[in-house]
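Hi R.,

Here's the input for the aspartic acid complex you asked about:
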Amino acid sequence: MSLIVQKFGGSSVANAERVFNVANIVTDTYKQGNSVVVVVSAQGDTTDDLIEKANEINPHASKREMDMLLASGEQISIALLAMAIEKLGYPVVSLLGWQAGFQTSSSHTKARIKRVDAERIRKEIDKKKIVIVAGFQGLNKYDDLTTLGRGGSDTSAVAIAAAMHADLCQIFTDVKGVYTADPRKVPTAKKLDEISYDEMLELATLGAQVLNNRSVEMAKKYNIELEVLSSLEREPGTIVKEATKVEKMLISGIAKDKDIARISIIGLPDKPGLAFKVFSKVSAANINVDIILQSVGRDGTKDITFTVAKGNAEETEQILKAYLEPMGVKEVKADTHTAKISIVGAGMESHAGVATKMFEALYDAQINIQMISTSEIKVSVLIDEDDADNAVKAIHQKFFD
Ligand code: ADP
Ligand code: ASP
Ligand code: MG
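And here is the predicted structure with aspartic acid in place:
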């Protein structure tokens, strides 16, 4: 008998028919003699709809009240799934995050899981029940509800698998696995049989939403093999695990991130300490910086360009204008019409020319590159947002077709 954690995303439980489809998958697993813990997200677009409702009432609502609202989406889906499983005649119990022992940090709307005290889940499993847990939520040390950030129920599932030493953690979604690019945007994208934690972590962080990046980080830390698969077609998906292949894939995937803005500072005095001061101001406001580019100094000045999340662009621009304009800096500006396209692959470490091939694909498509950044297993470029989908297609064609 194995302990299996199964997670179902919003589209997998979007309506009554889909809820019964999930109930069938879960009870089939249970019938085979396994213990099953199920994690579910809110139905369909529920979380987006709740955010919209909040904005109608108060666009500056406190994060505590946002969490109170957002956590309700998952409460609906766990109850409905449990009702469907009851109807099929199996023993089942649904639990909210706090009932399932999710203790988190206190930062509302982006809390981190600190601990899963799985005692209640274990008790229910001992009573032979199928346990349905609300993903994306927990309780902080003040006994307030928290949520884990968008896409956070993947992390809920992995956290349970880690806490309970599960034998398998399956992430069911609306595509058949992890592909070389978003299969909804690139019809020729290919499904991968397996991918390493490190490559999946890069892809997830760089915009492939099929898995939340924290869930991959946690799976790697606790060495939990994940299977990403479709809830609608019963066939093997993609295994995410420690790298084993002797021959590494040159590149395993392409990701697109539209949530990125470019901040340019033109005419900064070319003297020591200014980069430090500029980025101290930005980090003091809790704003994360990604790609950074500094020009060669000339005539006593230099330019610094960097990227932040789109939601932070306006604030970053204001902070830096307030600091730099009195110093005589001519221009601080934010461009929010940008996207970051990245290729990821462990094979890059040992092969030259991978970046060149990516740049050639962009040149063939006549797409201008604004910034470039590289690491051992990825190359990212910043481009105009309007070119993003074409860029992904062009790069995919160059490497895979
Ligand atoms: P869920 O609701 O199940 O959590 P998500 O919408 O969060 O599902 O993630 C699944 C979606 O991720 C897919 O529908 C697909 O469009 C998108 N996606 C982006 N990049 C990839 C990729 N490389 N492989 C598979 N899916 C991807
Ligand atoms: N329902 C949450 C969201 O839409 C969590 C999740 O889907 O993982 O972000
Ligand atoms: Mg998701």
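One thing worth noting: The mean pLDDT is 96.

Cheers,
M.
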